[in-house]
Design a protein that fits this description.
This protein is an alpha+beta fold. The protein is 32% helix and 25% strand. The protein starts with 25 loop residues before the first helix and ends with a helix. It binds nickel (II) ion.
């Protein structure tokens, strides 16, 4: 297994639309294992393939406290969403250090394929419902900050770009 590089907002590649997975082979299994390792190491509760620059409809999630309940969603579809909404303070491994409230349906019914290509359905509420919807947005090229006001989003963008410049500068000094 190996750790994958996570794209940081506002990287344009985060806005690519992911294609459905059609081949369930050892390459896919390795990608899932690497994404899971990258998510746990970060640490985070979810990671979409789009975030590691692989534009295929694949998501890994573990919302458990113990970190031993890995869920894999391939080609996920939302079959039903509740009218009832919930606001949750979301964060994202592609927007480190930023948390803000996003309103989404409180419960969703999702159909997806597992790592072997077998279909399954799940009724999700609470954090799992938030997480599934957040990660499925990534597959559509959408980052959660796009739900926030333009003012907030521009502030976040500026903060991310500043941190990126600082990291690059630190690296340059380190190699001198
Ligand atoms: Ni995210």
């Amino acid at each position: 297994m190996s750790l994958l590089n996570i794209l940081r907002y506002p990287d344009a590649r985060l806005h690519k639309i992911a294609k459905p997975v059609t081949v369930f082979d050892t390459r896919l299994k390795k990608l899932i294992a690497d994404m899971a390792e990258t998510m746990y190491e970060a640490p985070g509760v979810g990671l979409a393939a789009s975030q590691v620059d692989v534009h295929e409809q694949l998501v890994v999630i573990d919302t458990s406290d113990t970190g031993n309940d890995l869920r894999v969603f391939i080609n996920p579809q939302i079959l039903w969403a509740s009218e009832e909404k919930q606001i949750y303070d979301e964060g994202c491994l592609s927007v480190p250090g930023v948390y803000d409230g996003v309103e989404r349906p409180a419960r969703v019914k999702v159909r997806a394929l597992d790592a072997d290509g077998k279909p399954f359905e799940v009724d999700a509420d609470g954090l799992l419902a938030v997480c599934i919807q957040h990660e499925m947005d990534h597959l559509m090229g959408k980052v959660f900050v796009e739900y926030l006001s333009p003012l907030k989003r521009n502030r976040i963008k500026a903060k991310m770009l500043k941190e990126e410049r600082e990291q690059k500068r630190d690296k340059q000094y380190a190699t001198r």
